[in-house]
Predict the structure of Two component transcriptional regulator, LytTR family.
Amino acid sequence: MKKIKTVIVEDSRLARNEIKELLKQHPELELVGEAENVDDGFELINKTKPELLLLDINMPEKDGFELLEMLDEVPITVFTTAFDEYAIKSFEYNALDYLLKPINEKRFSQAIEKVKEKVTISGEETAIKTEQLTESSQIFIKDGEKCWLVKIGDIILFEIVGNYSRVFFQDQRPMLYKSLNQVEEKLPEKSFFRVNRQQIINMNHIKNVVPWFNGKLKLTMNNGEEVEVSRRQSYIFKDRMSL
């Protein structure tokens, strides 16, 4: 049985020890590291590539939300904190669960059951994670006071806004403070396509394709957005779509 690689990021040594005691009741979880601050947690996560992150929210200097903002890909996240005022905010981030300290053993077990539902556990060797994102990868987006954990496969398109990118998913259009070129380097090539200098689309969210002027194509996406494919990219697009 494949174990679920787990990381704890928590500034209190006592709290880390309490969580480690709870983890002993769940042999399907493998603790691969712990960190007492955001910067160390960031290095640890990038090094170990865990499936599960047990994350304190209220830490000195940088908080747990800032850690998520630093990551290119976010593991399944369960927040742990002594402050219930963060509960609503944490669910805006689409965290899998939220545990209030001191953590009850039964409540912890319920959270782990949710984790197991999201992680495929098998005896077979899984593919080693690379720097490339997949359809099921999560990214963190913070725009003003609103925050999201968004699955890559749910994103409809990315669009340049100055030096940054706007992200379209569901009925949301938040800003992602990375350039479109930075975004493109990480996206799965099978699903995403650079239609012009300004936009990248998820080909799984195309609703309609029509011929446009000068050999170009116009796409209508599932959210109603219309996107014009440049003439050069239209030839490549037709070849990929076997049109």
